[in-house]
Amino acid sequence: MSSTTDKIKGAANEAAGNIKQSVGKVTGNEKLQAEGKAQEVEGKTQRAVGGAKDGVKNAADAVKSKL
């Protein structure tokens, strides 16, 4: 997956997780709240992976330009 794809999917998972948490709070559904929190964390991780991929690519590009 590209870094952009990781970032987009991560943001979508974060948003969906936040919605699940909110619905869980409103309805008193602790399981839905927990699922939402897990999905939010997964999204943050995906976004971090996308950022790391960008960093690696930028570092590799910098090395190539110096050769």
TrEMBL record:
List residues of the CsbD-like domain: 6-57
What InterPro entries does the record point to? CsbD, YjbJ_sf
Q: Where is the composition biased (Basic and acidic residues)?
A: 32-45
Pfam families recorded: CsbD
The membrane-spanning stretches of this chain are none
Q: Where is this region: Disordered?
A: 1-67
Q: Which family is annotated?
A: Belongs to the UPF0337 (CsbD) family.
Its recorded name reads Uncharacterized protein YjbJ (UPF0337 family)
- Source organism (scientific name): Methylorubrum thiocyanatum
